């Protein structure tokens, strides 16, 4: 799409051309303050530019939060949700993860994010009568290897964890046979997985849940601070792919990210928590924003505990 197709003031179009911005997509990858600096436009002009460019990419009109809260948007609120497996969390989520949407789960290291994702990989396999989707799951690992031991522990404990489901149904369900695992070591392999392998499984009805653990890891390792524009472009492409898969196949997508712990420098050195008599100086910052902003967490925030490598073997299900 070229600039002439957008409903913009000719003065704004001229400023964008002077800034040598060649595409509408490039505008969406730059913040408002950077657009003001690059184009010399006022804040109101930049807002008009962003609104026009975003509208050109929007397949549907925006939905107000009040409409979503009332459940009046049929396109986004089909009524079908995937149970988390925890009654308290399901109540907070109005029944579970929405089918046909992307959900982000963020928290500090060791908070239980992966544990919750593994439970969802089991919950999705139950029939819709028990708030499942009667299908399998795709689990994409970008950092560590797949936690097969933790998954086996959850499988053995399903009778206690899901007391609402008949034990006979749990015992005859082959959970591990319906979880497809993929390890993406770089952005290229992640893109191949999302554009070729995952759509094939979704089209065949073999899976109805996509988990990416985690999003920010690859972008954190492949881009430097000076590559922020290209990184944002890649993030935008990645998030658009996830939304497309979710909407086309009515599949819940779960993205896992870590938060960073901001440390305070006190007179006694670097520490976490409160400094002096003032308020707490440590703050948890989300590891990603819109679409995602990868951040690094300091080594001290990991608790100083190292897990010794043990034997890792499993009957792995390949996406191919």
How would you describe this structure in keywords?
320 residues; alpha/beta; five-stranded parallel sheet; two-stranded antiparallel sheet; 13 helices; disordered C terminus
Describe the structure.
With 320 residues, the chain is of the alpha/beta class. 39% of the residues lie in helices and 14% in strands. It is built from 13 helices and eleven strands. The chain has a five-stranded parallel sheet with strand order 3-7-6-4-5, with helices on both faces. A two-stranded antiparallel sheet has the order 1-2. β9 and β10 (269-271) form a beta hairpin. The protein is elongated, with a radius of gyration of 22 Å. It starts with 9 loop residues before the first helix and ends in a 35-residue tail after the last strand. Residues 262-320 have low confidence and may be disordered.
